[in-house]
Amino acid sequence: MIRERWWRRWIASLAWxxxxxxxxxCGNVSGTMEPEQFFTLSVSGLAGKDQYTFEGNSGIVxxxxxxxxxxxxxxxxxxxxxxxxxxxxxxxxxxxxxxVGLLSSTDEWRAVPQKxxxxxxxxxxxxxxxxxxxxxxxxQASVRARSWSEDSWSNIxxxxxxxxxxxxAKRVSYDENNGDDRYRVVRIILxxxxxxxDWSDRIQxxxxxxxxNQALLATSNKVKGNAWQTAYAEADKQLQAMLQSLxxxxxxxxxxxxxxxxxxxxxxxxxxxxxxxxxAREEFYTSEVTFGDY
Length: 294
What we know:
By secondary structure, the protein is of the alpha+beta class.
């Protein structure tokens, strides 16, 4: 099954290359192309490349202008399915946000083909650790704790992100290119329901990771474990209430080469509205990525 999927990907890549040859010989065909088609071909072109690099940053901006959860990264794709990423930012080592200053890591990932967006599996990183905890039967279990970098990257991987945007409900249009005719600029606005689901999934993923690591540690002490379960149940109740009230607006801008259609620069901006502890709150998420070395 996996081999079959890679054959499909290879055929799709070959077809894309053939299309690019046709476009090169027929002038600027992309000039008359519908914006959604241009965006789809841009994502397909990126997926078909064997190697390239990318560099970016992301973070959440509070209404007061304070930037939190700031991350910066540099990555390289090689052999079509291998990814190496250098990641640095704020965190507490378990995907949380209490912060212990600047953390950094170098990790490797491998693409796992599947229907829709490919999943990138963590292969290894600098900060892997094992946590030993007693199970209910009294035996000791050794489990590799997910690293801060692993959990952070799973939510912002720009390669996987583009494929998920491609498959989401959205509106796509062309935008101004600031007079640079080498590029076309596409603006993507996720539908409200799609933006809410996207952010709900990302928040739930971080929550489950953070609480999962703490639960593993709590199992070594029955009293501590009981207290943790009580606190978890209350916190989870509050989180679910917050997610129910969540409204999200997400806009992505893609700048791609006019002829090859390969992505050059991507920006994403999201505005989140929700109710927490009875108070209406608002946060802003921003990210940008630059691709190169195709």
